[in-house]
């Protein structure tokens, strides 16, 4: 069984306590797709919810070694959506790329990829098109895919509709090629050339996996690529 590592995300309970969590949509989707989900737990002894990015100390050698031990156990890594990036996330992505581990970035995960080797920076969306939908069971806007991309090789279509749950967009990055755009011109997909599979997408195929053919095809193809890793 293919083993998919997913780093935990950060949030607060109603009483203010910090939690690290794995979203149910992404867990159930990747289990249904036939993979064993392995949570990748943050390694520093800090409060990941309330510590600001510039307040984190540098990862120690022991903490970096812990991250590598997680990567020794997986065939692929998925960076899920969320609302915060930390140095742990950035280093984990760097090691995935250095080791050429198949890697899929979803929403915030794509935004993390877009800032590879750079400071994290995203920009507020200004558009008449809805990029933050209310319901999980619809596809809300169109995107266009570059035919010279792994995404096109997998899906076989230049245009499709996707869901959308984000308020910010990314800009160009020298390390990634832009492979998909929304109908109002925002980047919706990126890939790193000359790697087995390092792809970021702005939408959430795990949410539409059960009813959208393209979402299912994308995740199933990613799983199959991980099996060959």
Number of strands: 13
Output the CATH topology: Rossmann fold
- Radius of gyration using CA atoms only: 17 Å
Describe the global form.
globular
Fraction of residues in H or I helices: 25-40%
What share of the residues does DSSP label as strand, in percent?
15-25%
Largest sheet: 9 strands, mixed
Q: At the fourth CATH level, what is the homologous superfamily?
A: Class I glutamine amidotransferase (GATase) domain
> How large is the count of helical segments?
7
Spatial gap, N to C terminus: 12 Å
Mean pLDDT: 94
Q: What's the number of structural domains?
A: 1
Task: Output the strand order for the largest sheet.
Answer: 4-1-5-6-13-12-11-8-9
Given as residue ranges, the uncertain stretches (5+ residues, pLDDT < 50) are none
In the CATH scheme, the class would be Alpha Beta
Structural class: alpha/beta
CATH architecture label name: 3-Layer(aba) Sandwich
Element-by-element helix/strand order: EEEHEHEHEHEEHEEEEEHH
